[in-house]
Amino acid sequence: FAPGKKLTAAEKKALYNTFMKTYKSLNAAVISGLQSTAKSATRDASQKLVDASRADAREESLNKKAKATGKTVDSLQKQKALNNKNAQQKPVKKKSGSMPMIVGIVILLLIVAIVIFGKRSEDPEDEFYEASFGTRRYDVHGNDDYFMAGPFWYRGRYYHNEMDYYREHGHHYTNRMYLDNYDSYGRGQGRDAALDQEIMEKIEKREDLSEAAADAGEAADNLRADAQELENEASEAQEDIEELRETADILDEEPDFEDDEGAEEEPAFEDVVEEEEPEEEEPAFEDDGPEFEDDLEENK
């Protein structure tokens, strides 16, 4: 229609019907897309919440393990403190179970020996006992011979002799091992290096577990945040769907159309019946040959 043209009710209705047909088609396509978006977002949000719950469970499990490892560290540190306390004490000689008379005879013999030889005994074990812990260093060669100089400390334990060590570990304690042990720890020979290593490993494990738990907690929070965004997206899509449906319902109610003032009705076209053309008469055809008359009369 030309701009500004006055329209009749029929023309307006025709325009409205054409518009509604196109609108409904587009509206249905938009609603279908929004429904797919809402469905997908809702599904993804549910999955992220499930993943978040799993991450929460992992965080809780790791925190429990970290806490248990922390208790182990505390226990080991208490054991270390006790070992160090015991290590700083002088080894106590076992009291002899001999009778006083035998003790007296032994003392008398020792006095006689001192007088005879002019010097006191230099028994390594006695010197070790008399010295404060960690100050005694036996003068041995750095070889693989069995250590026979006297009692010694090894990793927080006190051994009366090398055979005690052998029965405990299944291999012999050598002069080289003694010197290495003394050179490494000096006054701290009673310190349990293996225990220290175990404590450090447990502390590192506890830290690793705590970090892993923190990472799991952060992952759970991120998943919940993502799920919330998806739920908002699904909610917005659903609101748009409802709005489009309401608009479609309003437009679906066909209004009453009236002719514009001054609008001219288009002429109604009647069916034109085509008149039958008259049939053409066929011409009369005459014989071209000569006319022969019957000689019947003449021959009579």
Keywords:
300 residues; mainly alpha; 6 helices
Please outline what is shown here.
With 300 residues, the chain is mostly helical.
What general form does the structure show?
rod-shaped
Kindly estimate the percentage of residues that lie in beta strands according to DSSP.
under 5%
Structural class: mainly alpha
Using only CA atoms, what is the Rg? 59 Å
Output mean pLDDT.
75
Q: SSE order in H/E notation?
A: HHHEEHHH
Question: Quick one: biggest sheet?
Answer: 2 strands, antiparallel
| Major β-sheet strand ordering | 1-2
Distance between the termini: 95 Å
Low-confidence stretches: 90-99, 115-135, 268-273
Estimate percent helicity: 55-70%
The number of helical elements comes to: 6
Describe how the helices and strands are arranged.
Layout: H1 9-87, H2 100-117, H3 124-130, E1 152-154, E2 157-159, H4 162-169, H5 175-185, H6 193-252
Antiparallel strand pairs: 1-2
Helix pairs in contact: 1-6
How is this structure best described in words?
With 300 residues, this protein is mainly alpha-helical. 61% of the residues lie in helices and 2% in strands. The chain has helices at residues 9-87, 100-117, 124-130, 162-169, 175-185, 193-252; strands spanning 152-154, 157-159. It has a two-stranded antiparallel sheet with strand order 1-2. A hairpin with a 2-residue loop joins strand 1 (152-154) and strand 2 (157-159). It is rod-shaped.
